[in-house]
Amino acid sequence: QVQLVESGGGLVQAGDSLRLSCAASERTVRPSTMGWFRRAPGKEREFVAAIRVGVGSSYVSDSVKGRFTISSDNANNTVYLQLNSLKPEDTGVYYCAASSSILIRTGADKYTYWGQGTQVTVSS
What average pLDDT does the chain have? Predict the structure, then answer.
């Protein structure tokens, strides 16, 4: 089992930056891939980025590529999402998720464990 806890969200202005953290507590199953998803108000859940644990391979959605960066601190079982040059359309709840797949996946249905989410609000 894996427990995920996100933190780092907040209210910022357009152009500002935030760093989201996801602390993973590994028990029975060790996740192979960690991902970030977000849900904007009134919209469906959207894939943001994912990283292969212990390998370094990562993938970032085209919608945020160049502005967002995913990274990990394997020693502390923590993944991060650096959000730069934030725009109002980036507003939403950001979720951390874990998958046992050794391949990076973008579909939410491929992730078994989810955090409670952290709110990111960007004002213009």
Answer: 92
